[in-house]
Structures are given as structure tokens and as C-alpha cells.
Amino acid sequence: MATVIGATRERVWRALTRPQEMLRWDERFLALQDTNGSARATHWRFRLGSVPVDLCIRPTEVISESRLRSEVSLGLFRFDATCILTSDGEDPERTHVSLRFTTSNAVPVVGGTLDRFDVRKLAADLIDQTLRALQRWCESPTGTAARPSSGRAADPGPARPIKYAAPRGPSARGPRSADA
On the chain, which terminus has fewer CB atoms closer than 10 Å, C or N? Predict the structure, then answer.
């Protein structure tokens, strides 16, 4: 999934990589937790729906202002997240941001499993919420829009739509993975 954000790549990159900013633009981030001396991973308390869970983000590839790939552990869910930033060819003050999660087809949960369709929906919802919150934050007039005080996501208004990639079909991916 992708969107165009009315801010420079440097501004978007800063919002994606600085924990103090992440806490302000995404209301699902509840608190930065102790990293136990690990400089390679960031540990958070995160709200998944209405449930607080542990979130660990371990970067595996970092190309400043261009590409951020991470292994993510979100409660019971494990996935790879890849965020790619490119400048809009028509306006360097706008940034094209794409975000992709890759995970297994089924996720075990208490009392059963989530199948590939449930996993894909969960991943798509997480990406959509992330891109909308990032867009709202980076496009705010001062770049410091406050989190909604109601605890609920603010309506992003007439923001540019999130683009969804067409499904690739079973031959494009192995039978053990699902993309969102």
C-alpha cells in the first residue's frame, strides 16, 4: 500500500525513525520500553485494537531517507515490514511512501489460528492506519500536529487516498506467505 505525503523525504524519514516523534503521531504507540541494552531493536507498548501488546522493531536494512526494512514482533504476530520513500517526480516537497508487510499465511492465537484472509486484513488495516497517521502528522502546518485527545483516530479529512496493490495470485508468492 502506498500514499503521497505533502512533505519532504527528510521530514517523513524523521517521523518514521525518531521514537519521540512516533509517540506523537501514532496513538497506538503507548510507551517506549526499556531496550535491555539492545541497540538494534526498539521495544514498545502498543495498542492493537483495544488490547495493549508488546511491539519489537528490529531494523534489518536502513538506507537513510530511502528504505527501512525491519523484523517486527507485535504480540503473537511476526512479519517483515518494508517502507520505501521516493521523491515525487513532479514536486520534491512531496514524498511517495510505500509500506509492505510480509507474514506467514496463518497465525496461531489462543484457541485456534487466523487464516490467510484474516492475517491479510489485519496487516492491511495496520498499514492503512500507519500511513494515514504518518500523512496527517507530516502534512500538518507546523509538522507537530498533536495526537487526538479522544483516544480515537482523528478524521484525516481530504487526504490523498491510500493506493492498494493488486493481488498477485498464488503463482507470484510461495504457498506459505501472504503479502499486504
Answer: N
Give the separation between CA 6 and CA 87, rounded to whole angstroms: 10
- 35-70 pLDDT tens trace: 555 568 889 999 988 889 999 999 999 999 999 999
Global pTM reads 0.72
Residue 164 backbone phi and psi in degrees, to 5: -105, 130
CATH of 2-164, picked from 1.10.10.10, 1.20.1280.260, 3.30.1360.70, 3.30.530.20, is 3.30.530.20
Q: What is the three-class DSSP state of 171?
A: coil
Closest by alpha carbon to 138, among 2, 1, 11? Answer: 11
How far apart are the two ends of the chain, measured CA to CA in Å? Answer: 7
67 SS3 class: strand
b/e sequence 120-140, b meaning 16+ C-beta within 10 Å: bebbbebbbebbbbbbbbbbe
Cα atoms in the Cβ-side hemisphere of radius 13 Å centred on 75: 13
Residue pair 21/29 in contact by the 8 Å Cβ criterion: no
